[in-house]
């Protein structure tokens, strides 16, 4: 099997796209964060936040600026992670985003 010249991994292409267009990063994260409501699919939201953190500075730099250890950030944003609200807010702030609340589409009036 030969390697393609100038091939870019999916992950690297994803990071480049998120870096290039902030609105894409916001919509990507908003869609993934909806998975946090489902206990069986929480990993998608955490991994999306990890990917955005990688795109906007790298995990080491984001952890440093957020005031947490790199190892703690890796654990918090892993598929089985369970970050505190403080960690989520710190990471979001570091990448230039903030937590927001909106009404559920099927919420009772």
Automatic annotation (TrEMBL):
Pfam families on file: dnstrm_HI1420
Source superkingdom: Bacteria
Stored InterPro entries: HI1420, Lambda_DNA-bd_dom_sf
SUPFAM superfamilies, sorted: lambda repressor-like DNA-binding domains
GO molecular function, one term: DNA binding
Protein name stated in the entry: Putative addiction module antidote protein
